[in-house]
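Per reviewer request, we include the raw input and output of the structure prediction for the construct analysed in the revised manuscript.
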Amino acid sequence: MSTSRALSYNFSKKIKNVLRSERALAYLFLLPTLIMIFAFVIIPAIWGLWVSFTPLSLVGKYAMKYDFIGLKNYIKLISDADFYNSIKISFIFTILSALIGQAFLGLMLALVMREKAIKGKSIVAITVFLAWIIPEVVAGYMWGVFASREGMMNTLLALLGMPPRNWLYDLPLETIIIANIWRGTAFSMILFMAALEGIPHYIYEAAEIDGASWWQRFRYIILPMMAYVILVDFILITIWTFNVFTMIFVMTGGGPGNATELWTIFVYRRAFQPPYEVGYASAAANLMFLIVFLIILSYIYVSKKLRWYG
């Protein structure tokens, strides 16, 4: 009896040692990632939070020596009309280009790609994917040329008898919304295509046998079973669209005036253009982070209140 107990004890001890070594090895593999996250995410975030309570500037007397000033930057933001304008433009841009544009168009394209009877689906998929993989700087210059007075957009509209116009000057916000829909729809389409493939075919067949119309299948089968995927898509494209900077800055620079000044461009202008107020720009960035975080929490709250199936 003692021998069997000893063998059992030795075996369990070896198992524990192996588990400990595997756990240590897993932590060792995670260590480089944790170091990178700490160095390039956590430390800059803490520094940005601290700087927002100071008058730090890139030039002048506050470039080298700056003191704690409390909530002065945040109080200044409350009375800054340009900051409110950037928030308004960012919300309009996000709602129209991401939540309505990219999500809706991505869902429609995913449904189209699922239909076997429709031809030319590969051409549509390639076109959408190309818009997604093009670098933002290149996409910005492309749209800058495309929407100019001598660009391809006016050439195509001239065939319909419409007069040319400078779209980035006459309709700047509408133009950047269309450009962002063009570039970001591919992600939503891919996500929804994967979700549609996960719905069992026998459910569609049973609905067809029962005489359900296309809208009824979409309303009572596809939409409920894709609810959480739609929520994930909303969360991701909201975060990404609120943080869009490069393509829009290349296209318009936030202009004309501040007609396309998203909050990211507002922060850039305040920090890296005169008067180079880094502390003030950090306060604006932190405040927008809080706003986006509250939006994401509202998505999650609404999803729990609704009756999702899947």
